[in-house]
Write a structure and sequence with these properties.
The protein is of the alpha/beta class. Helices cover 20% and strands 31% of the residues. The N and C termini lie far apart (34 Å).
Length: 168
């Protein structure tokens, strides 16, 4: 299964539209993960219309309309891999330990909030933590980003961070 991981789209506050390369990835992916902070319901509608399967949560900047449609946590098994999706995981310090406790029995945690790409594994090697960054608001990062991956035979592979061209 080809996976797309994204978060923190913040439309229309941080950008006016979803970048073209990300839209192309939505069309190619078997499943799309969005870890919250959509900001407007039109973006959710767009993802729902284009994605074969959307696994998504709301974030701290999402209002009542999005919170009615999305939960705080989503759990799914794809390609034999057990995923959880949330928006926030707390401070970077101690993240792996906290998440290992909170998401025991899961293989991969997709999260957002910081806009900082993150790819680590807990000390025991059981949980991989992935933050795809933001495709529209790089904050202190050099690029806006998203991730792709594959889930097959109970394993996550080909995890790749994609940099988007800078907007003019």
């Amino acid at each position: 299964m080809r996976l797309l991981l994204t978060s923190d789209t913040h439309l229309p506050k941080r950008a006016k539209q979803i970048p073209g390369p990300l839209l192309d990835e939505i069309d190619r992916a078997d499943a799309v993960f969005h870890a919250g902070d959509w900001v407007d319901t039109a973006t959710l509608d767009l993802f729902e219309a284009r994605a074969r399967l959307l696994v998504a949560v709301h974030g701290n900047n999402d209002g009542p309309g999005l919170r009615e449609r999305l939960s705080e946590r989503a759990d799914v098994e794809l390609g034999g891999v057990r995923f959880s999706v949330v928006h926030e995981t707390g401070p970077a310090q101690g993240r792996e330990r906290r998440c290992a406790e909170r998401f025991s029995g899961r293989d991969v945690l997709v999260f957002g909030h910081s806009h900082i790409p993150w790819d680590t594994t807990t000390e025991d090697g059981r949980l991989r933590l992935l933050n795809p960054g933001s495709p529209t608001d790089r904050r202190r990062q050099p690029y806006c980003t998203y991730m792709t991956a594959r889930a097959e035979g109970g394993a996550l592979g080909e995890v790749r961070l994609h940099r988007l061209p800078r907007r003019r």
